[in-house]
Amino acid sequence: MINRILEELKKGPITFQELARKLELEPAILKELLELMACKGLVRPVRPECTPKACAGCPEAGKCHGPTYTGYEAAPGGTKPTGA
Amino acid sequence: MTAKRQIRIALAGNPNSGKTSIFNALTGSHQYVGNWPGVTVEKKEGGLTYQGHDVLLVDLPGTYTLTAYSLDEKVARDFLVNEQPDGVVAVVDASNLERNLYLVAQLLELGLRVVIALNMVDVARGRGMMLDAPKLAQALGVRVVATNGVKGEGVEELKQAAHDLGRSGPAKPLHLPYGHDLESAIEQVSTLLRERGCTPDVPLRWLAVKLLEGDEAEKGRCAGVTGLAELLARLRQALERHFGYDIETAIVEQRYGFLNGVVRECMKRRPDLAGRLSMSDGVDAVVTNRWLGVPVFLLVMWLVFQLVFAVGTPLASLLGKAFHLLGLAVAAGLAALHAPAWLGSFVSDGLIDGIGSVLVFVPNIVILFLVISLLEDSGYMARAAFVMDRFMHLLGLHGKSFIPMIVGFGCNVPAIMATRTLESRKDRILTILVNPLMSCSARLPIYILFTGAFFSRQRGLVVFSLYLLGIVLAVLTARVFKWLFFKTENAPLIMELPPYHRPLLRATLQHVWDRTWMFVRKAGTVIAAAVTVIWLLGNLPWGVPYASAGSLLGRIGALIAPLLAPAGFGYWWTGAALLAGVVAKEIVVGTMGTVFGVHADGLAGVLHQYFTPLSAYSFMVMCLIYIPCISTVAAIRRETNWRWASLAVGYTLVLGWAVSTGVYQLGRLMS
């Protein structure tokens, strides 16, 4: 499943829902696998966050909606094992 | 007389699965609290009597897995593995089934007698999940009791089940399928252990899996087996080479694969919610479709601009009349007070006409912000961002940069700030450099003014074409810069789309208010200051006719005018307006209002004397592309350095001139 996820990721951007459907996985299971892969450095979580430093000087400071998306991207190095 | 046998039952489960309330419901006031030996982890035991048997219930610390990482997890795991209780009541949070069943699967592999207390079923039902407890029992081969620890539901049945555990025969360990390659490795390790006479207190298969996982706590078991270390090392190396990742990951992956099958078998969506989800999936099938996604996004953009003009323009016209009346009233008032002529000129020509020519477009701006807020709050913008991400990826570019830009159609500055989400510095700089080509709301007054004057029937389409041009130029420029400066890999994204939901009116209106207030406040501060300077320059040297070619403003603009002639608008005041627009793009319109002493409605009439539809379009193209405003340049410098900020200023200036000139000259050739 993990290699299938990485294969799908190589093909291009994909939504979480579409990936779960393609791999016939329950969304919660896919989420657990992605978190596992993130722990092992196979993917990198993408979770934009507002920080005081980033927002300083921005005219929309404190007024923007916050993260519009979250997700995961392939980590550099592809599927190299990271060790236990 | 036969002594009553005490049945020892462990209560295990994930943290926050409701274990404590189940424990309290089962034991009532018969609880004892102490510490686990040698550690400062609380140990809770309780007793109950059922059908003449004493049942000792041991409440274990919450744990997600039998691979212990924390002290709490170690205590729970040591008790389950080493103490071998008569049975385990596994408390499972039904609303988080997949994660909770992971521990249950490991308990079953260990060969423990297990009964599942399926807790929080009401919470699961509220989230639209319908669990088939008998199917779950069949899939795992254990008894499942639905419970509600808080309300005490299912407690009697659970007592019965716990009592029966203690009186049942040995349980058969769950043989979880690990796939061909891992099974072969498990078999080799199990065979070696068996042949070497290792007889651990745990199932041999379970131990083999743990040793392959590299579980430190199990290394001591059968440590003296000859050849074990070498076999494990060889198998780990081969399997890691085969999978491309470590064995622990591969084993966890297989466990989740097994659980996926179990959950799909026993969990269904509520029929009413299933319909809603199908509709959501159906919509996503279109809006994120590989071929339809971009056209749908462009259609949505086009509709947005149609709305901005259809609803906003009549209101803007009313506001324009109000500013006109205000100008007349103020002029009359100042005249009645015998105020000096220069004061009347400043207030009327400078402030009211200058600022008014920008503020008159507030209705259009409000409509734009309202529609964008609705699209954001409904969840569509995340889909649009994904579609653009995929489109950019097709062109070999990093699509993540488009994500903040799309939702930041309001202002380039927050979009530049949002590039901090890009880990790669090269990706960040590339994104920042092309960001100013995405049209912001400050340019909208310019578009509205000129389209109103020259493209009244196709206003929405013309403005849409400008936004589209900005996106196309951003993509092409990014390709060039990537080739020149930034050769990086593009990492595609698995994007979690938020569910669609009905926007909350109050929240949407708050967003619209916040953004509109920002626009109005800018008019009252930056633009007011700018038009004051413009008015002064239009009056100096003192005595020249106001805003004439002989004024300072005229002379400054005249320096630039020859360069603008090939683009079709080589007038001193267009030069002055574009120069002033570097401060804030709205000031382009504000300058025109100040120079001609009229605001929007009047300006349209004036523009007809100097522009044609072709030169009007090329002027809007120039305003789209040329130099980012000062705030944007400052943001670029802050996020990068002076070198990249200078490049941003330089290339947009050249590109703006080149494209607007190209549009004008090509248009002339074709007409």
Can you describe this structure?
The complex is a heterodimer of chains A (84) and B (671). Chain A has one domain: Winged helix-like DNA-binding domain superfamily/Winged helix DNA-binding domain (Arc Repressor Mutant, subunit A, Orthogonal Bundle). Chain A is built from four helices and three strands. Chain A has helices at 2-11, 16-22, 27-39, 52-55, and strands at 14-15, 43-46, 70-74. Chain A is globular, with a radius of gyration of 16 Å. Chain B has 671 residues and is an alpha/beta fold. Chain B folds into three domains: 6-167, P-loop containing nucleotide triphosphate hydrolases (Rossmann fold); 179-269, Helix Hairpins, CATH 1.10.287.1770; 293-486 and 511-670, no CATH class. Classes of the chains: A alpha+beta (84), B alpha/beta (671).
Annotation keywords:
heterodimer; A: 84 residues; alpha+beta; Arc Repressor Mutant, subunit A; two-stranded antiparallel ribbon; 13% strand; disordered C terminus; B: 671 residues; alpha/beta; Rossmann fold; Helix Hairpins; seven-stranded mixed β-sheet; two-stranded antiparallel sheet; 28 helices; 10 strands; 8% strand
Largest beta sheet of chain A: what is the strand line-up?
Answer: 2-3
How many domains make up the coordinates of chain B?
Answer: 3
- Rough outline of chain A: globular
- Number of E strands of chain B: 10
The main β sheet of chain A shows up as: 2 strands, antiparallel
How big is the Rg of chain B? Answer: 36 Å
Largest sheet of chain B: 7 strands, mixed
The biggest chain-chain interface is: A-B, 58 and 71 residues
SSE class of chain B:
alpha/beta
Question: Low-confidence stretches of chain B at least 5 residues in length (pLDDT < 50)?
Answer: none
Task: Summarize, please.
By secondary structure, chain A is an alpha+beta fold.
Furnish the topology, listing elements before pairings.
The complex is a heterodimer of chains A (84) and B (671).
Chain A: H1 2-11, E1 14-15, H2 16-22, H3 27-39, E2 43-46, H4 52-55, E3 70-74
Antiparallel strand pairs in A: 2-3
Chain B: E1 6-13, H1 19-27, E2 31-35, E3 42-50, E4 53-59, H2 71-83, E5 87-93, H3 97-109, E6 114-119, H4 121-126, E7 129-131, H5 133-140, E8 143-146, H6 155-167, H7 179-195, H8 204-213, H9 228-243, H10 247-266, E9 267-269, H11 271-287, H12 293-336, H13 341-359, H14 362-378, H15 380-394, H16 402-407, H17 412-417, H18 425-434, H19 444-454, H20 459-484, E10 493-496, H21 505-539, H22 552-564, H23 572-580, H24 587-596, H25 600-607, H26 613-625, H27 630-639, H28 642-670
Parallel strand pairs in B: 1-4, 1-5, 5-6, 6-8
Antiparallel strand pairs in B: 2-3, 3-4, 7-9
Helix pairs in contact in B: 3-10, 5-10, 7-8, 7-9, 12-13, 12-14, 12-20, 13-21, 13-24, 14-21, 18-20, 19-25, 19-26, 20-26, 21-24, 22-23, 23-24, 26-28, 27-28
